[in-house]
Amino acid sequence: MGKSLTRKIIESHYVSGSMVPGEEVFIKVDQTLTHDINAVMTYLAFEAVGLDRIRTECSVSYLDHNLLYVNNMTPDDHIYLQSAAKRFGVHVSRPGNGICHTVHVARFGAPGKISMGGDSHTPHGGSIGMLCIGVGGMDVATAMTGVPMRLKMPRVVNVKLTGELKPGCNAKEIILEMLRRVTIKGGLGNVYEYTGPGVKTLEVPARATISNMGAELGATTSIFPADEQVHKFMKAQGREEDYVELLPDEDAEYDEVIEIDLSALEPLISCPHQPDNVMPLKDAPKKPVQQVFIGSCTNASYADVAKAATVFKGHHVNENVSCTCAVASKQTYRELLRDGYVDILLQAGVRMLEIACGPCCAIGQTPATKGVAVRTSNRNFKGRAGNPTAGIYLVSPESAAATAIKGTFASAEEIMGEGIVELAEIKEPETYLVDDSMIIPPLPEEEAKKVELVKGPNIKFLPVPEAPSQHLCVPVSLKTLDNVSTDDITPASAEFSSMRSNIPLMSQYCYHRYVPDFAARAKELGSSIIVGGENYGQGSSREHAAINPMYLGVKCVIAKSIARIHKGNLVNHGIIPMLFEDPASYDLIEQGDELEINDLLDQIPTRKVVITNKTKGVSFRVKLDLTDNEVQVVLSGGQLRYLKKQLAEQEVAEKEASEK
After folding, report:
1. What is the C-alpha separation between 575 and 177, in angstroms, rounded?
2. What tens digit of pLDDT does each residue of 4-47 get?
3. Distance between CA 115 and CA 589 in Å, rounded?
4. Rounded to 5 degrees, what angle do the CA atoms 631, 634, 636 make?
């Protein structure tokens, strides 16, 4: 049997380990990316390692998420991040240049490369035949040292697309249909590889919508072939020399096959409070809508915004609706200005926002109390938009524009009638406006060594955990329900995002919106354990959802299941992730119970641990879903301690080799 595209790329970057699904494999990473509200911890970690310069082909620091300067903290972070980039040989994409994923695909990405990014929507780059994986910031710091990165070898699922989308349907419908079928945790351990004749009908930004939101499936990543559509895109970006055709073999072997007929899709809507709560738009109860947001990395391409503007032609935003639009990049904004689409939006009463991530992660445009907000972004977790009382609905740009006009859920066809065929004529530009003046290239190495790192008063130390002890007897500081997100653990918004470079401050708001007294209780207890339900830690890659509990003394998280990126972040920051061997054991524990583990250091390598609930007088078993490498990281007390040990051993080996 032939090879999948995923397997070809992993094999070409293989260093060691096993290529069997579910087992640990180590791979070389070509590129990394970070964004401003998570990156400070990444560069503090890289600084702590002690290297003078990154060892990747290309690393980029994007200043794109929090551009709403509510105080001095965020501008201080941006100044530090620029100085760190100059010091360590990293590109900087300045505020206003665009959202990281969009810019990275356009200006840095290339077929066949492997990228790791400190954001869960890094798989956006799968749209051009890259293998792009979202990870925590410590993993990005590790990748920048050149150390091979651990990966659980994924299953590869072939999503075979046939037919062609009807006018008024968007690539958003494809990924919402996937979410409806697979669910938010059904993709754990999988790469979704899109093939079939339907793929050829999708331009790169449309593919990016699908690969970007594949993160909501819990997947490792998603990927499309580097075919003629990718060639066309890279040529239009003036980067044809970076293109290489990269396709799966015709007889490629897959672990599973999913088939979707694009021509059978209709406008869909994701309802609160999970992205997989999907139904046909026409069946959604007609609620009055107060807010519509068109934008985010997921759906703010040229064609997306142009189609939304076309729906608005001759219409106006409903008087009861606040409608905003944030274009994904400066490049795209200029093209939309040139072709008159921004003027159409302004005439319709749409407010144009800054070129930034913004509202998607609750930085501006928070919905009203118990409000209904319709968005083209990727997540609708409770409180994701900054207000836990609001309901967030996810739709395509075409449906968002129609909704803004009608004041309730509506499709483009309801507004345009037979004129909807006009939408099918809108394509991406043949040639993009290339202007990299807002990208700061790395300094030469000798000049870079002279750069001083500029740390404002809010930038504090990176906490480093201690190695676990042989005996642990601590109380349960919190028991949570299913589908706790990293937004629940570490809240978003401009205010909270600006605190993320200050763990002593940020940790005070751990679980703030849902369990306001958690931080104070955990701190008073000194050491504790958190108990979770299914899919604990879903959503954003923000490692603060692991760092803050660690700083507050949390030693273990015991859950029914843990989301991939969050599990990695727990390991990296010294919290042991444990899974109930029998999910019914969850019911044997209450908040405040005292749990005891004897011989912990001896039990960890066996991946089986016995825990006694001293309060209830019962024992239960947990399993550790850890690779050999992750076991070593846990025993070392986190990734930073382990990485320093690795690099020291590597330096000794290189010295000995040179002396022979």
Report:
1. 35
2. 999 999 999 999 999 999 999 999 999 999 999 889 999 999 99
3. 40
4. 110
